[in-house]
Amino acid sequence: MAKIISGKEVSAAVREQIRKECDELKAKGIAPGLAVIIVGDDPASRVYVNNKKKACADVGFVSEEYALGADTTQEELLGLIRELNNKKEINGILCQLPLPAHLDEKAVINAISPLKDVDAFHPSNVGGIMIGDYNFLPCTPAGVMEMLHSENIDITGKNCVVIGRSNIVGKPMAMLMLHENATVTICHSRTQDLKGICSKADVLVAAVGRPKFVTADMVKEGAVVLDVGINRDENGKLCGDVDFESVEPKASYITPVPGGVGPMTIAMLMKNTLKAAKIQNDIR
Ligand code: L34
Predict the structure, then answer these.
(1) Is 250 known to be catalytic?
(2) Dihedral angle, C-alpha 112, 136, 230, 96, nearest 10 °
(3) Which of 15, 33, 41, 199 is the most buried (most CB within 10 A)?
(4) How many Å lie between the centroid of ligand 1 and the Cα of residue 193?
(5) Where does ligand 1 bind, in terms of residues with CB under 6 Å?
């Protein structure tokens, strides 16, 4: 029987701390502000953006939503980002991904001022993370680390396996685990003997984007299993990349979906926005 690490609970504790610090900033006349850009009408993105706005309200931040039509041009989007880069009341800018296919995601990420890049997707922030010199950590990997910390799980010298190599999750996830002295393996669609590698993992992070991809035969007895996926199963029900039912009895710790990594991603976004507000107001 695994202990379930609740992202709902851990994220609530993080947000509580942020709320306190936000109150302190407000006493100094500073109100942290986050701008969220959403382009088109992807229903999943809509849910995530709504959750981000709710979290802002919960911790006391000002949030501005910019909902743009699916036919928005690259020039229009870059124009908005330029405006937000210069807007004093806005400390953090986030452009929800994925963007409609005609838009250039890389150019959009590049256009956001690194000082307001609370996703930590800008190349200069990504580079900073590589060398351990950064202001912001990418929200989803940082959220996973926070879940490990909440249970005092020490990964020093441990065999950590990340399935997935995206710029948003897999690659930075591996880097954060490396920073905490783990031995890290990144697996992907071309990996040979995926099952063999996964079943040696002390800590297994699933970020593949395929429903119930990780099954019990891929998991070592007593492993810590962290599920980054958000998918719909054959019945349209929310599920992760891990087959929770079969894996849970084998794991020592496991994260659920929903109520796992998702809420942590949002809590880490709040943390980055608070930090951005402090830096931009020369506090600390
Ligand atoms: N720019 N794009 C940018 N930044 C991000 O950090 C994201 N991500 C990913 C997609 N695109 C992005 C998110 O915000 C994934 N993601 C995200 C955020 C929140 C939740 C899930 C993914 C979330 O709230 N999940 C809930 C359930 C949501 C539901 O009901 O569908 C959960 O409990 O897991």
Answers:
(1) no
(2) -20
(3) 33
(4) 30
(5) 47-48, 51, 94-97, 119, 139, 230, 238, 257-260, 262-263, 265-266
Position 60, amino acid: G
Reported as half-sphere exposure (CB side, CA atoms, 13 A), residue 52 has a value of 32
Testing ligand 1's pocket by substitution, the residue of 8, 84, 230 carrying the most ligand atoms inside 8 A of its CB is 230
232-255 pLDDT, tens per residue?
999 999 999 999 999 999 999 999
Handedness of CA 141, 142, 144, 148 (dihedral sign): positive
| 280 classed as catalytic | no
Q: Is-catalytic flag, 275?
A: no
The helix/strand/coil state of 199 is coil
**Which residues are bridge partners to 204 per DSSP?**
161, 225
What are 71's two structure tokens?
A: 């036919």
pLDDT at 284 over 90: no
Distances (CA, A) of 24 to 15, 30, 65, 78, 182: 14, 9, 25, 34, 36
The CB density around residue 46, as the number of other CB atoms within 10 Å, is 14
pLDDT at 195: 98
